[in-house]
Amino acid sequence: MRRRWWWILAAAVIVGVPVAWYLGSPLVLNRVVDEAAVVGAGELRGTFGGADDFHQGSGTAVIVRTGAQRILRFEEFRVTNGPDLYVYLAEHAQPRSRQDVAQGYLSLGKLKGNVGAQNYEIPPETDLAKYRSVVIYCQPFHVVFATAALEAAQ
Questions:
Q1: What is the C-alpha to C-alpha distance for residues 16 and 145, in angstroms, rounded to an integer?
Q2: d(CA 131, CA 82)
């Protein structure tokens, strides 16, 4: 009986430690990005805020037109880190839940880093008039980490 208990404990440690690291390490490790600024005319702009007391965000989201191409640019950006965070353009102005995001969104890909300046290409056929916010979204847990409501740039 005593041997079986040790095998169960060993199996729990072998499985539990990697799972705990995958889920917990983003809370203490930052991925810093510093991509070059994009030169062009700013079309839309928003300021990031957190989705709740735990998931915080700050900085600016700017959609910049450079010729025929449009780029979503994050400046002075910081968000609570987490597993598998993605960048979405969302139809909802201030999404706070999975249901709000599900009203309509366009994924621009995986978040490059939770800190720093970064750029994301927007597909040329995208109708920006239907998207009202930028969302940092955790896909595995369907949690909104931060949002920036978009307004015309001045």
A1: 25
A2: 24
How does pLDDT run across 29-80, given as a tens digit for each residue? 889 999 999 999 889 999 999 988 889 999 999 999 998 899 999 999 999 9
Q: Which residue has the tokens 């979204």?
A: 137
Q: Which of 69, 86, 54, 77 shows the shortest CA–CA distance to 121?
A: 69
CA of residue 139 relative to chain centroid, distance:
9
Residue type, 63: I
Q: CA 145, CA 48: separation in Å to the nearest integer?
A: 10
Token digits of residue 89: 């353009």
Chain position carrying tokens 């980490």: 145
Q: Provide the token pair at 60.
A: 């600016």
Could you tell me the pTM of the whole model? 0.84
In the numeric block, which tokens belong to residue 11? 């199996």
Decide if 89 contacts 72 (C-beta within 8 A): yes
